[in-house]
Amino acid sequence: MRPPPIYLDHAATTPVRPEVVAAMAPFFGPRFGNPSSAHRWGREARAALDEARERVAGCLGAGADEVCFVSCGTEGDNLAVLGTWRAARVAAPDGGPARTAIVTTPIEHKAVLAAVHQAAREGAEERLLAVDANGVVDRASFDALVRDDVAVCSIMWVNNEIGTVQPIPELAAAAKVRGVPFHTDAVQAFGKIAIDARTQPFDTLTLSGHKIGAPKGIGAFFVRRGTPLEPLMHGGSQDRGLRPGTENVAMAVGLARAAELAVAEREEECARLARLRDALEAELLARIPDAVVHGRGGPRAPHVLNISVPGTDSESLLLALDLAGVAASSGSACQTGSVTPSHVLTAIGVPPELASAAVRMSLGALTTDECVRRVSELFPALIGKARRLAGATS
Ligand code: PLP
Fold first, then answer.
1. pTM of this structure
2. CA distances from 97 to 93, 100, 150, 252 (A)
3. Whether residue 334 lies in the annotated active site
């Protein structure tokens, strides 16, 4: 009998938790009301939505009036970057210089980078922070670029490809001193890092449900009271006009449940994942001594392991892994027929041949000691296969 397949792609998405499905179920049945309706169905939906908002806010140390529901992390990131930039652009100058620049890092998710590029098409000046070989933001570069002419500074808390953790509380505090609105993409950080808006002075924050055991298609966006923000969409007064459109009550309820579980289990689960990740890393490096683990020398979240084996390429290794029943991913954007090395690995100085061999294994709820043992045993043989495949296609 074939052993069960191994899922090592939790940074891409996670299985929906049964507790979340159970919490959502009534809203696909009798509790179908529209929260904007004044009758009993509407009132019942409104109460569920308000409660979900309060619970998500509680997980962030925020007030309920500081949380809005969005469709995904990508939307939250766009709202943060474009919404803050457009608000700064339309604001009357307060005697200081016009806020025309946006500061971010070269290792952000495309949801932030593409939103920054859009702002640049609208007239913003893009400034990219320097990062070190582990992806950590260079403080001198931050101090040089984050000035009082910046409309928004957006820095991800945990990198999705290599797991680097940025010192967000410290950077947000430094931005605050300069009056610069600070956004953090916490899509990979929520449930891994202790987040508390009461003590950590970020102005906006994005999280995404499907990375924490809720379904795809729901996220939450924190916006600190008083932060100027232009909505991306227009048409209704839901979510205080920041995010018009009939609210997705079922998904909001599911997100609240998933967020609470993630916070409650965070410390124990992070310790478990760090132990499994370290074991997998040690096994792979012992068996394949020329393998390189990216971001290993810096602070890393416990669920990401990004490894390159010289002489292979990501596509061949992922194919060999998939045929052996192991699901992982590459940091590369696969375009028809060609694989572009990851912008993250390129930005931290990984040479192209090594960057195009990178494979990201991301751990989570489905990862066990047995998964680590099987992948460690399988890997060396798969490397041989991938090297032959890479040789055949080069
Ligand atoms: N930001 C980061 C760091 C991510 O890892 C992802 C998804 O992979 C996103 C943003 C986008 O989130 P979503 O898939 O919910 O749009």
1. 0.96
2. 7, 9, 9, 40
3. yes
